[in-house]
Design brief:
This protein is an alpha/beta fold. The protein has eight helices and seven strands; from the N terminus they run βαβαβαβαβαβαβαα. It is globular and about 50 Å long. The model has no long low-confidence stretch (mean pLDDT 91).
């Protein structure tokens, strides 16, 4: 089953939020999911300690450089999807996880600084492709955007990526109170109370578009490495 790896070389890109949103949306769609929290902050583990985590979502937090390969390979054999939240630095752990990925998502905000670090992460993916002699599908995810508003800097970045043929997800993750509320209240977006969170329905709709596009990308990608003869 596919392993989806979230990586970024800059903090504050919404990486953990995006990984958690994807995992919970896949679960609410009926799939079994394992989340591997390989970030030093262990924010996914903290989220999972609250009430409301779906039964068919497993969070693995005892992850090190020495065991991450076993954690990913084991999870791939047990659940329909594996979502990995990586640390923010270039390391052997990052290299191992990217090497096992069926799809890599690189979150970034629409700024030049974020774009520079996203480009570095993209180079890491391409290097792993050369080492392993296989394609590793990836895409940029632009996060924390305002619906209907595209700042000039962001438009320039998107144009640069398009000219360089760097894949960018059509769906952006908007800045939504509901996404922050997940880590305050736990559970899934669907489990939040509308009276506690503004624009909850819009947040859910945005999250579902994101999950649908990721699944579509996986369907168009080469077969997962564990299924290749």
């Amino acid at each position: 089953m596919p392993a989806i790896v979230f990586t970024s070389l800059k903090s504050g890109t919404g990486k953990t939020t995006a990984a958690t949103i994807l995992a919970t949306e896949l679960v609410e769609g009926g799939a079994s999911v394992t989340m591997i929290d390989a970030s030093p902050n262990r924010n996914v583990v903290g989220w999972a300690e609250r009430l409301g985590v779906p039964e068919n979502l497993t969070v693995v937090g005892d992850v090190t450089q020495d065991n991450i390969v076993d954690r990913i390979v084991g999870a791939v054999s047990r659940t329909a999807f594996v979502v990995v939240d990586l640390e923010h630095t270039i390391s052997l752990m990052m290299g191992y996880a990217v090497g096992l990925a069926d799809f890599v998502i690189i979150p970034m905000q629409g700024s030049k600084l974020d774009a520079k670090q996203a480009a570095r992460a993209k180079i890491l993916v391409c290097r792993q492709e050369r080492v392993l002699r296989r394609s590793i599908p990836f895409a940029i995810l632009i996060t924390r955007t305002k619906p209907g508003i595209t700042p000039r800097a962001e438009r320039h970045i998107e144009k640069t990526f398009a000219e360089s043929q760097v894949p960018v997800l059509r769906t952006q993750l908007h800045e939504r109170e509901a996404y922050r509320a997940l880590f305050s209240f736990g559970g899934t977006l669907g489990g939040l109370a509308a009276q506690d969170v503004s624009n909850l329905e819009l947040a859910i709709a945005n999250a579902r578009l994101f999950a649908v596009e990721v699944v579509e990308r996986l369907r168009d990608a080469p077969a997962p490495i564990n299924e290749v003869a």
